[in-house]
């Protein structure tokens, strides 16, 4: 099942806010609905929201400039969203069929992830413990996945290993989404809280880290879900290789370094509440950055559809 696809003039998507309790498909029929779906994380993951934005341009093609601005503003950190919208605007300017362009973006994503997965699979050896942070699986893409695509490819090749999925506060994508995907794939895994990562590295249970990315700067600095930077520092302290898995389109050559990446700040309620229940005192100050930036010096390599690249060694 694909995370997102075109169906009878609408965009059919999995509502990820309901997982793992309920698998529900929703149908988006307007650009305004698509902007809302991206903002509220019904669809999330850099490649997935890129494809969603492309389809959003189709839905809002009657006023594409306004639609493009609203889509780009919906989530500022993930570069794939901007990349897809700019590609759609360029396609419109060239007189191309927008639906065909969006469908091509979606198909390219699937094939890209499969190639990426095979490149990364060679890093996983029998007996390894592999850490992943947040969700970078089929749900974060059109299909197959980036970091989980690497794990999926290695598992399909018959390799025997164990995955550690960090829960990823405050939205719990690791607990809700990655665990759901790994269970469906029948990959052996253990769910851990974010503050257990160092413990399991110290015990020798984790031997490799593979995570996704929302934007990679020209120098290799990488923005990914909050908590990734801490995991990378811990990996360095324990001598554990730390890899980013992302399509080449996630590399933003116009962004010089991580200092130039805009970090999305989300609603405080994501931290103060679990579901509808408030777990913190009223009237307190709350910070909720959705992403952090891992400096290139902590990254062993970047797994792309073109192969495994050294951070900063990018050529178009």
In short:
With 316 residues, the chain is an alpha/beta fold. The protein has 10 helices and 16 strands.
Report on this model:
By secondary structure, the protein is of the alpha/beta class. The chain has two domains: 4-111, translation initiation factor eif-2b, domain 1 (Four Helix Bundle (Hemerythrin (Met), subunit A), Up-down Bundle), CATH 1.20.120.420; 118-309, Translation initiation factor eif-2b, domain 2 (Rossmann fold, 3-Layer(aba) Sandwich), CATH 3.40.50.10470. Helix content is 37%, strand content 19%. It contains ten helices and 16 strands. A hairpin with a 4-residue loop joins β8 and β9. The relative contact order is 0.12. The model has no long low-confidence stretch (mean pLDDT 96).
List the helices and strands and how they pair.
Elements: E1 4-7, E2 10-14, E3 25-28, H1 31-39, H2 46-59, H3 64-74, H4 79-93, H5 98-121, E4 129-133, H6 147-156, E5 162-166, H7 173-185, E6 189-192, H8 197-202, E7 208-211, E8 215-217, E9 222-225, H9 228-237, E10 242-245, E11 251-252, H10 269-272, E12 273-274, E13 277-278, E14 291-294, E15 301-304, E16 307-309
Parallel strand pairs: 4-5, 4-7, 5-6, 7-10, 8-11, 10-15
Antiparallel strand pairs: 1-2, 2-3, 8-9, 9-14, 12-13, 15-16
